[in-house]
Amino acid sequence: MPSLISSQESFDEKLPSSLSRSSATKAELQTGKLRHLPLFETCDQDELLLKSINKQINRSRRILILTGAGISCNAGIPDFRSSSGLYELVKRQHPEASIRSGQEMFDISLFREEAKIPVFATFMEKLYSSARLAQPTRTHRFIAHLKNRGKLLRCYTQNIDGLEESLGLEVSSERDSNSTMANQWKNLDVVQLHGDLNKLSCTQCFETYNWNRGLSRSLRSGQLPSCPRCQHSNRERSLLGKRNTGSIGLLRPNIVLYGENHPSCEFITQGLNIDMARGRPDLFFIMGTSLKVDGVKKLVRNISKQVHERNGLVILINKTKIGDCNWHGIIDYQILSDCDTWVDYLQDSIPDLFKTQQQIEKAKQLKRENSELRKRQREERKLTPPSTPRKKKQSNSVKIESLPSPEDTESDASATRDHKAETSNIILKLAFEEARTQPCSILDAQSLPSLHREDSLSNATDTTIEDDLTEVDEELPSSRLPANPKQPTVVAR
Ligand SMILES: [Zn+2]
């Protein structure tokens, strides 16, 4: 493809010489022009480049992520855009409605035409039911793993399925008036830029509600339920003899439709500013999105600027190629791949990154114990009279009369016994620890004590864990992300 070739040629001129050593720094890896990298069938130079990029990914400590529908593609939510998707099912139920595409179901203008509201209600109930059955993908688990490793600064998502929540990630939903904005933001892992399908909200008073059977039934039949809070306040006004305003809101999924302002817009803007000013992001992953929404494009430009100022990298992982010219100097690389496939590739390439925090701690402990053992052995050797081993050797090979005295033998035997006992104790302990650190999947990772966000953010002098690990670390088995059963295609938005 001509565009790829020209992009590659221009990049080759600037390839850092250190790439040949596979030790390019993040600053050296930054590109003035977006470079596309296929994950497989790569040339030697691309492979070298991917290795260098992986190395920097492994070293990164404050990772920002932006996700789109592509990360949920393997999760089991039907594609509402496809002809065989949800939209077609709903259209059969409401043949009279003049709706041309599933996309229209996400546009605020549908509320201007009463005939479209039942279609919207049925469509959203079906989408919610599908999302409830969906399972998080390997990409979702990777994000949760980065959080458990204390490397996730924040994940911004365009998806409304809330699949991250089932992995123990804190997902933005309602604001807590008893807590400060900064405190709420600090505890947040995933920011839902387009709202949350798993809640319903009132069109009038914005009160949010959980789905229940009654509400589901109402939406399925094409009716948006009335807001209980609005109904209650209207009754109160009537009892007090006040004029009834008559405005009772309707409940609809708490998602942001096209042409609508985000109810948490201010909160998200403030939070993003906090991430930029104090978060010090050093890597930005954009996953499973073609970056077509204007607000999201702006977000990417802002984050990219901050990440590049800290010599970090901006990497897009998406199957569909995005236009180069708009993203030169903003995105360094696009890895042309399905997100789950890339996560698998990354796990094979840098298994250290996929170790749980517990495995890392155990490896460090083993290393410490090993070093103490070696130190004690050195000290023991210093204390042992140098003549003793020679005596033994001579006695074995030549003279019976030069055998050590009974006292010497007893003392040597006792020292050897002590040493052996100590060594076998430590070996047993090492074996025990080894057994305890057997592959711990990322499924398990959620049950592990996760790092407190504050720790990960405040520890500015933190060194890269992987850099500390030695051969002991390498012996540890690395975990494998559990494969997800392949299910129907997903597109949330
Ligand atoms: Zn209401």
TrEMBL record:
Keyword Transferase: yes
One Pfam family from the record: SIR2
A Gene Ontology molecular function term of the record: metal ion binding
SUPFAM superfamilies: DHS-like NAD/FAD-binding domain
CDD domains: SIR2-fam
Binding site for Zn(2+): 202, 205, 227, 230
Keyword annotations: Metal-binding, NAD, Repressor, Transferase, Zinc
Family statement: Belongs to the sirtuin family. Class I subfamily.
Catalytic residues as annotated in Swiss-Prot or TrEMBL: 194
InterPro entries the UniProt entry points to: DHS-like_NAD/FAD-binding_dom, NAD-dep_sirtuin_deacylases, Sirtuin, Sirtuin_cat_small_dom_sf, Ssirtuin_cat_dom
Domain Deacetylase sirtuin-type: 43-369
Region called Disordered, residue ranges: 1-23, 365-420, 449-493
Biased composition (Acidic residues): 464-476
Basic and acidic residues: compositionally biased ranges: 365-383
Database matches in PROSITE patterns: SIRTUIN
One GO location term (cellular component): nucleus
Signal peptide annotation: none
Protein name (Swiss-Prot/TrEMBL): LANO_0H11144g1_1
